[in-house]
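RECORD TYPE: inverse folding
INPUT: structure tokens
STRUCTURE:
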């Protein structure tokens, strides 16, 4: 290449310094200052977002995008996680009604996470999900609610039995049940149950009621069950044993009827037979049978025939005055 001038030698150190200076000037002009711009790392889109042609939301520099957490309910000014509930019942209408009642009474405090028709389905669900409270029917095809408790693995949930039969009440409380509900379940009765399940729920009381309800201790083996006096419907004596029929089921324990009646409120309970005591407010119908006897129908559906020697007490407490007494 004769005739052309030789190229000037390149100062490599000077050229590198000049490129760095130009880069600082370009970033300073973009940011309005002389400092270089901080590097911002954008999150990579997920596979599903790439297939849909979308993208993930951009997070601000130095902060991560917040993910929505589980819903919380507030009671008493404090926030609590909702109880996860499972319903085991083979009747679809019964499951729907109980779920609707839970939503009406408990609101966000109880979250129904499963509705199962048999024990196998419940056990499969419980292997992979947490259950805090279990609403169990007893009469099920291919098994019963008690077998679900025997097969349960993991942390035991709190159990509420829901049944159309009251003869399983004693066994249910022996299995440490929180409550025993009789179908059809009312909203008031369910509210009382939830007051025992929820940590900061107000006690379930009637509107305008301010009086305290008496609670009676009923010894069952090595356990003692506290029963509200207002829940007792009927007390029957069988030798030295008593059958206490309540809204939560029937309790049987060793005690004489005379000793137990002495602990009851005389204005609330009435002895109508030598082996039977009823709660006065539970009587909804009185039929005269003759010879000083009456047939009483209670609001739970039970019928009791009174003894002749108790006819005056029945007339005074249930009818208003003894028969044959002149009106004032």
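DESIGNED SEQUENCE:
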């Amino acid at each position: 290449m004769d005739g052309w001038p030789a190229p000037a030698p390149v100062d490599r150190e000077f050229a590198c310094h000049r490129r760095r200076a130009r880069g600082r000037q370009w970033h300073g002009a973009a940011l309005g200052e002389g400092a270089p711009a901080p590097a911002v790392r954008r999150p990579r889109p997920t596979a599903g977002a790439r297939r849909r042609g979308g993208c993930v939301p951009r997070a601000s520099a130095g902060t991560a995008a917040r993910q929505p957490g589980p819903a919380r309910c507030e009671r008493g000014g404090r926030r609590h996680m909702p109880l996860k509930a499972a319903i085991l019942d083979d009747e679809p209408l019964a499951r729907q009604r109980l779920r609707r009642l839970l939503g009406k009474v408990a609101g966000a405090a109880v979250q129904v996470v499963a509705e199962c028709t048999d024990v196998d389905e419940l056990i499969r669900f419980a292997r992979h999900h947490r259950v805090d409270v279990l609403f169990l029917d007893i009469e099920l095809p291919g098994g019963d609610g008690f077998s679900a408790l025997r097969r349960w693995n993991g942390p035991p949930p709190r159990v509420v039995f829901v049944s159309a039969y009251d003869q399983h009440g004693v066994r249910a409380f022996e299995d440490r049940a929180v409550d025993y509900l009789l179908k059809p379940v009312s909203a008031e009765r369910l509210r009382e149950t939830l007051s025992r399940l929820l940590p900061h729920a107000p006690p379930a009381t009637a509107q305008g009621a301010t009086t305290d309800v008496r609670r009676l201790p009923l010894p069952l083996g090595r356990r003692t069950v506290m029963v509200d006096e207002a829940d007792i419907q009927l007390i029957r004596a069988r030798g030295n044993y008593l059958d206490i029929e309540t809204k939560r089921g029937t309790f049987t324990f060793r005690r004489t009827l005379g000793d137990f009646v002495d602990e009851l409120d005389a204005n609330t309970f009435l002895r109508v037979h030598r082996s039977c005591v009823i709660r006065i407010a539970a009587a909804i119908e009185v039929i005269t049978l003759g010879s000083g006897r009456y047939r009483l129908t209670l609001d739970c559906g039970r019928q009791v025939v009174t003894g002749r020697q108790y006819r005056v007490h029945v007339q005074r407490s249930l009818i208003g005055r003894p028969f044959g007494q002149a009106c004032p």
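NOTES: The first helix runs from residue 12 to 31.
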